[in-house]
Write a structure and sequence with these properties.
Elements lengths: L1 H7 L8 E9 L2 E9 L5 E13 L6 E12 L3 H16 L13 H6 L14
Antiparallel strand pairs: 1-2, 2-3, 3-4
Length: 124
């Protein structure tokens, strides 16, 4: 059974995946995995996998650098709103770093501070 998991690329964490979508983008692959926790609640695990080649010729070695974030159902709307706003900003060509300003004051008025907030640290 363990050999079957290795052949299929599955590990213990993959048994909880109920849906998966892979997005290939150059040297990166983004995996969007819907998983269930112990309480049978679904959440989204986003994984960026980047192919790293070190060395040259016969001595070259291939490895994969992975970064994960977990997104829970109660945060979907805020995450999507923030992602859409960020993409629109980039698409409108406003990526000039000298004009980067903090969020609008009106947005801050609607935000509440939650001490139990999930903090996500993504390094690319």
């Amino acid at each position: 059974m363990e050999d079957l998991k290795k052949k299929n690329g599955l590990n213990e964490n993959d048994k909880d995946i109920v849906f998966s979508k892979a997005i290939k983008a150059g040297k990166r692959i983004y995996y969007l995995d819907v998983k269930k926790n112990r309480k049978d609640e679904m959440f989204l695990a986003i994984t960026e996998s980047k192919k790293i080649v070190s060395g040259e010729g016969e001595a070259s070695q291939i490895s994969f650098e992975k970064h994960k974030i977990f997104l829970y159902k109660e945060d979907f709307e805020k995450f999507m709103n923030g992602l859409q706003e960020t993409i629109q900003y980039i698409e409108q060509g406003q990526g000039n770093t000298s004009s980067l300003a903090p969020h609008k004051k009106e947005d801050e008025e609607h935000e509440t501070v939650n001490s139990d907030a999930i903090k996500i640290d993504i390094e690319f």
